[in-house]
Design goal:
Structural class: mainly alpha
Order of helices and strands: HHHHHHHHHHHHH
CATH superfamily of the largest domain: MetI-like
Shape: globular
Distance between the termini: 9 Å
Number of strands: 0
Oligomer: single chain
Length: about 325
């Protein structure tokens, strides 16, 4: 296990280097000059020259990357050119909101998606199977922003059960926090649950026809034990991969959902940064998201070994 982790960690270093170069290079293709944007309406040439020197905008592109990479290695992602705050601080402010939303959405997706996939596979070609597939089709084809608007109209406007938008910290009022987060979490979890259901059903159908499952049934084991202990455990490998990738997607920020429900997460942060040509914020958020994806893939690889003993060799 230790050798496996060391090999995976060694592969992460060049991957992160390539990702950082790609992020920095593509960022330079965005139109507009951040120095002019920071200078304001007057656009004093002296101010523009000062800003170019301060943020190394007058340096060649490779040197600008070196300055930025050195800061990243020391935990400094630069300063926001719009609000003059450290990018690291902005990320740390938005990160708890995004993690909470992603965790709630993933929990909803796992409970609904895996349960529906198991039921669909066990009761293949039955009414339950058709209902689960219909749910998956509905979840995949329903736009998140449209479902969010419908939920606001029904649960907030008509019934008055939940707040239509906004965010309350769980440390201030846990009940108000859950009330504000449950609808956006369900909107995001609904689409992921549909994907998880299809993958769980496919994996379970393959495993349920395996020889060791037939042997377990021939030994007289209870069907619930056969399905949950023998079949599901071996079917979880592709589901773990998909779950890690989907969780990484949620951490990157669900832009439309956060806009509909006014959730101050990564989605709103990066949209505002792009519109304001705040290059440092865009680079910092994208680099953080890419790093989260890489680490989640590492955790998925470790989970493979823990779930399936055959992969330990």
């Amino acid at each position: 296990m230790l050798n496996f982790l060391l090999k995976r960690l060694a592969a992460i270093v060049p991957t992160l280097f390539f990702v950082s170069v790609l992020i920095f290079g593509l960022q330079q293709l965005l139109p507009g000059d951040p120095a002019i944007a920071m200078a304001g309406e007057d656009r004093d040439p002296n101010v523009i020259a000062y800003l170019r020197a301060k943020f190394h905008l007058d340096e060649p592109l490779p040197m600008r990357y070196v300055y930025w990479a050195k800061g990243v290695l020391h935990g400094d992602l630069g300063d926001s050119v719009r609000i003059q705050e450290p990018v690291t601080q902005l990320i740390l402010e938005k990160l708890p909101v995004t993690i909470e939303l992603a965790a709630l959405a993933m929990a909803i997706a796992l409970v609904i998606g895996i349960s529906a996939g198991i039921v669909s596979a066990v009761f293949r070609n039955s009414a339950l199977d058709y209902a689960a597939n219909l749910f998956a089709l509905w979840g995949l084809s329903t736009p998140n922003f449209w479902l969010g608007i419908l939920m606001i109209l029904f649960f907030s406007v008509r019934l008055g059960w939940l707040p239509a938008s906004g965010y309350v910290s769980p440390f201030e009022d846990l009940r108000a926090n859950l009330a504000a987060m449950i609808m956006p979490a369900f909107v995001l979890g609904n689409a992921i649950a549909a994907v998880l259901m299809r993958h769980t059903r496919s994996a379970m159908l393959q495993v349920l026809s395996a020889d060791y499952v037939r042997t377990a049934r021939a030994k007289g084991l209870d069907e619930r034990v056969v399905v949950l202990r023998h079949a599901l455990r071996n079917a979880l490998v592709p589901i773990v991969t998909l779950g890690a990738l989907e969780f990484g997607t949620l951490l990157s920020g669900a832009v439309l959902t956060e806009q509909v429900f006014s959730i101050p997460g990564f989605g709103k942060l990066i949209v505002d940064a792009v519109f304001n040509r705040d290059y440092s914020v865009v680079q910092g958020v994208v680099l953080f998201t890419a790093t989260a994806y890489i680490l989640l893939n590492l955790l998925a690889d470790v989970a493979y070994v823990l779930i399936n003993p055959r992969m330990r060799s």
